[in-house]
Specification:
By secondary structure, the protein is mainly alpha-helical. The chain is built from 17 helices and 3 strands. It folds into 2 domains: 90 residues, Type II secretion system (T2SS), domain F (Receptor-associated Protein, Up-down Bundle), CATH 1.20.81.30; 240 residues, Receptor-associated Protein (Up-down Bundle), CATH 1.20.81. It has a 3-stranded antiparallel β-sheet.
Length: 430
């Protein structure tokens, strides 16, 4: 055993080394691709931010790795590092962190292993930054907080709660389940929207082609005939002339209006509130959007309640991440009532958000002390509602779009062939 004097001397040397290590933080950090060896003789490869080769060597030594060689990545790789982290990559990250921490592997070592396992994933530079931040003395939640584009407030607060309660493996397993549920819900919604969008695009394309190219040629023949032109034919001619003359102006107006609306929504909260309210009132689609958001809210509320995050803080985080200002305002009102002493069920009852069945679930969960289970049941309820509404939307839109296309084609055929048959009838009578 080291005597006291040796221990103090070693401690001073360690502190001196730590000071020299942190003093290099003021220099510019660069991502080094390294090859190192761990204490078991296994080769480790990854990417780590450092100010110099000496700094990289010191950081690897702290992670119990011996540097073999290192180099700066090529410019082509730097472009790849800026790509967006997908939800699937986050799901993999959470599942692996849950397994590593459950197995008792140190967090820094686990992040090093993940860097090697991720390969060229867009998440790898984020793992490098997380590792460096934790090695500099930050907690895991603090390191995650430095990357808001990848880890939102829910992610960070759940991680902080897991660190404080010692249940980090369970929390990350819960986050992985939540991300998987969101991925399935979004995929289902995209599938429901894809078919009607394709059909509507085909219908609109056919109508434009007929009005701009086919109808004008037929109208030259019809207007050259003697006799009175029917009203529906004159309407078709006027519509075709409008499309032919102003199609570029119409296209520019639609694009410009979309850009202007986006700018107004970004800068003015009143416009954003109005647009979000209109989106929630859209036939069929509005109800689906509302139920998806409520299901996500119940899912987040349940996970954060299980992790021990205070209710008021949970509601504030949900308000900031819900994605709709109308629903966010309702959650803000409910948060105010809860802070004033009302129960969660009563506060939600005074908003338009929840239907009676989820409210009864929440009321029972609040009385029995199993609010998290009640919120998960409410999530399942809204999930079933979304599934049924999407199926109903697919059932209604297919015949509706078919009828629209048939009506347009029927109008064109009747307007073109009607005068021809009238002319033929007059010739026969003559």
């Amino acid at each position: 055993m080291m005597p006291d004097g040796g221990f103090v001397k070693g401690l001073r040397h360690s502190q001196k080394r730590r000071v020299s290590f942190t003093s290099s933080e003021g220099s510019q950090m660069q991502p080094y691709t390294y090859t190192a060896m761990d204490r078991y003789g296994r080769t480790r490869r990854g990417v780590m931010n450092a100010t110099s080769m000496d700094d990289l060597h010191a950081r690897l030594r702290q992670a119990e790795l011996d540097l073999i060689r290192a180099r700066l990545p090529r410019k082509k790789r730097l472009v790849r590092l800026r790509s967006t982290v997908s939800r699937r990559e986050l799901m993999t990250f959470c599942s692996q962190i849950s397994q590593l921490t459950r197995a008792g592997i140190p967090l820094v070592q686990g992040l090093h292993d993940l860097q090697e396992a991720m390969g060229n994933s867009a998440l790898q530079p984020v793992l490098v930054a997380l590792t460096s931040k934790i090695q500099d003395g930050a907690t895991f939640s603090e390191a995650l907080h430095c990357h808001p584009a990848v880890f939102n407030q829910v992610f960070v607060h759940l991680t902080r709660a897991g660190e404080q309660s010692g249940q980090l493996p369970q929390v990350f397993g819960s986050i992985a389940d939540n991300l998987a549920w969101e991925d399935q819900t979004i995929a289902r919604a995209k599938k429901a929207i894809a078919y009607p969008t394709v059909v509507a695009t085909v219908v609109l394309t056919v109508v434009v082609i007929l009005m701009v190219f086919l109808v004008p040629q037929l109208m030259q023949f019809i207007t050259g005939m003697r006799g009175e032109i029917p009203t529906h034919t004159r309407a078709l001619i006027a519509t075709s002339q409008f499309f032919t003359r102003y199609w570029l102006l119409m296209f520019g107006a639609v694009m410009g209006g979309g850009i202007l609306l986006k700018i107004l929504v970004t800068r003015f909260s009143v416009v954003r509130l109005w647009v979000d309210a209109v989106l929630l009132r859209l036939p069929l689609v509005g109800a689906i959007q509302r139920n998806i958001m409520l299901a996500r809210f119940c899912q987040i509320f349940a996970r954060m309640y299980q992790a021990g995050v205070p209710v008021l803080q949970t509601l504030h985080i949900a308000e900031c991440t819900i994605g709709n200002s109308v629903i966010a305002r309702a959650l803000r009102d409910a948060t105010t009532r809860i802070a004033e002493g009302s129960s969660i069920n009563q506060s939600f009852s005074n908003t338009f958000l929840f239907t009676p069945i989820p409210l009864r679930m929440i009321a029972i969960g609040e009385k029995t002390g199993e609010l998290d289970a009640a919120l998960l049941n409410a999530t399942s309820f809204y999930d079933r509602e979304v599934t049924e509404q999407i199926a109903r939307l697919e059932t209604l839109l297919e015949p509706m779009l078919t009828v629209i296309l048939g009506a347009v084609l029927g109008w064109i055929i009747l307007s073109v062939l009607g005068p021809v048959y009238d002319l033929m009838g007059s010739v026969d009578s003559w």
